[in-house]
C-alpha cells in the first residue's frame, strides 16, 4: 500500500527537485555583457577642484600667492 | 595653465623638519604615515646635504601606470591625486614610486595594508572641496582656497618651493647665478623628465 503511494509521489518529487535545480543554477548563468578593462583610465569620482582650476582667476591667485610668499627678497 | 612642481634647494635646507611638521599638523596625518620627510645625504660628513622629499607629482606618474584599479588622476596643473574609495591597498604604487611617496597606515594585524596615503600638494581629493569627508580622507584642500602647500610656505630658509614650475625654475636659476656652482634640482629629472 505504501509503495503505491511512494510511486505516486516520485514524479512530484522529481519535478520539485528539477525546479529547485533550475532556479539555483540560474545564478551560474553566463552574463551577456563583458566588462572591458581600460588601463590607465581613471575610474573614481570627479574632483570638483578640476572645474575650479579652469578659472583664470584661480590660476592668478596661486601665482600671486607664490610671488608674495616664496620668492626671494 | 601652470604646471605645479616642488623643488628643494639642498644648499638652503637646514634639516629643521618644519615642512614635515607643518604637513602632519595641517592634514592631521595619522601616526606611522609621513607624507613628507627630510633625507640627509652623507650624514655627519662635512658637506652633508638635506633634501625634503614627498610625492613629486610626476609628469608620467609611475604610480598611476601600475595601479590595478586605476584610482589615480592628474589635474590640469599636473597634481597627481588618487581616490581612496577605489584604492585596494595593494602597494604596487609604493614599489613603482622612485621617491617612496606612497604610505600605508597599519590598521590591522598580519600586514594588511590600509588605503594608500600620499602628498596631495594640499589639493585634497575627489570629494567636495573643503568638506569634512575630504579633510578626513585626504587632508585640507588649500589649493581650492587659493593657497599653496603649507610645507613650502612654512619653510624658513625658502629651500622648499612649491608652485608654478616656471616661477620655481626662475627663482632657482637666479639663485644659481648669484651663488655660482652647478644646479642640483633633486628629483626633477626623474619626476619631470623632458618637462623639467
Question: Whole-Å distance between the termini of chain B?
Answer: 16 Å
Question: What distance lies between the first and last C-alpha atoms of chain A, to the nearest angstrom?
Answer: 110 Å
CATH architecture designation of chain B: 2-Layer Sandwich
Per DSSP, the total helix count of chain A is 3
Series of H and E elements of chain B:
EHEEHEEHHHEHH
What is the 3D form of chain A?
rod-shaped
- Mean pLDDT of chain B, to the nearest integer, reads 92
Assess the beta-strand content of chain B as a share of residues.
5-15%
Inertia-based shape of chain B: globular
CATH topology of chain B: Alpha-Beta Plaits
Largest β sheet strand count, sense and barrel closure of chain B: 2 strands, antiparallel
| Percent of residues in β-strands of chain A | under 5%
Q: What's the multimeric state?
A: heterodimer
Q: How many E-type strands of chain A?
A: 0
Biggest beta-sheet profile of chain A: none
Tell me which protein chains meet in the greatest interface and how many residues each side has.
A-B, 28 and 42 residues
- Tell me the helix content of chain B: 25-40%
* Rg of chain A (CA only): 34 Å
Concise description?
Chain A is an all-alpha fold. In chain A, 58% of the residues lie in helices and 0% in strands.
Question: How would you characterize the overall build of this protein?
Answer:
The complex is a heterodimer of chains A (73) and B (196). Chain A is an all-alpha fold and 73 residues long. Helix content of chain A is 58%, strand content 0%. Chain B has 196 residues and is of the alpha+beta class. Chain B has one domain (4-192): Alpha-Beta Plaits (2-Layer Sandwich), CATH 3.30.70.20. Helix content of chain B is 27%, strand content 13%. Chain B has helices at residues 18-27, 62-66, 92-96, 132-138, 150-154, 165-179, 188-192, and strands spanning 4-8, 37-41, 49-53, 72-74, 80-82, 160-164. A two-stranded antiparallel ribbon of chain B has the order 1-6. In chain B, strands 2-3 form a two-stranded antiparallel ribbon. The radius of gyration of chain B is 17 Å and the shape is globular. The two termini of chain B are 16 Å apart. In chain B, 40% of the residues are buried. The chains are: A mainly alpha (73), B alpha+beta (196). Chains A and B meet through α2 and α3 of A and β6 and α6 of B.
Amino acid at each position: 500500500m505504501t509503495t503505491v503511494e511512494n510511486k505516486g509521489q516520485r514524479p512530484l518529487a522529481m519535478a520539485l527537485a528539477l525546479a529547485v535545480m533550475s532556479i539555483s543554477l540560474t545564478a551560474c548563468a553566463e552574463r551577456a555583457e563583458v566588462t572591458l578593462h581600460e588601463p590607465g583610465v581613471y575610474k573614481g569620482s570627479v574632483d570638483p577642484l578640476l572645474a575650479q582650476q579652469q578659472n583664470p582667476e584661480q590660476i592668478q591667485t596661486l601665482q600671486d600667492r607664490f610671488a608674495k610668499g616664496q620668492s626671494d627678497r | 595653465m601652470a604646471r605645479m612642481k616642488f623643488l628643494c634647494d639642498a644648499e638652503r635646507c637646514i634639516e629643521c623638519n618644519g615642512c614635515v611638521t607643518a604637513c602632519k599638523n595641517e592634514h592631521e596625518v595619522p601616526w606611522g604615515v609621513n607624507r613628507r620627510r627630510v633625507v640627509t645625504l652623507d650624514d655627519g660628513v662635512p658637506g652633508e646635504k638635506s633634501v625634503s622629499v614627498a610625492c613629486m607629482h610626476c609628469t608620467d606618474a609611475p604610480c598611476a601606470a601600475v595601479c590595478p584599479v586605476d584610482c589615480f588622476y592628474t589635474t590640469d596643473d599636473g597634481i597627481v591625486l588618487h581616490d581612496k574609495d577605489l584604492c585596494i591597498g595593494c602597494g604596487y604604487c609604493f614599489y613603482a614610486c622612485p621617491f617612496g611617496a606612497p604610505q600605508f597606515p597599519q590598521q590591522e594585524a598580519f600586514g594588511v595594508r590600509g588605503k594608500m596615503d600620499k602628498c596631495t600638494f594640499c589639493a585634497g581629493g575627489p570629494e567636495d572641496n573643503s568638506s569634512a569627508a575630504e579633510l578626513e580622507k585626504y587632508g585640507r584642500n588649500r589649493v581650492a582656497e587659493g593657497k599653496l602647500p603649507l610645507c613650502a610656505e612654512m619653510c624658513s630658509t625658502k629651500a622648499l618651493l612649491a608652485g608654478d614650475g616656471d616661477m620655481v625654475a626662475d627663482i632657482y636659476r637666479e639663485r644659481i647665478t648669484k651663488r655660482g656652482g652647478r644646479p642640483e634640482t633633486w628629483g626633477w629629472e626623474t619626476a619631470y623628465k623632458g618637462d623639467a
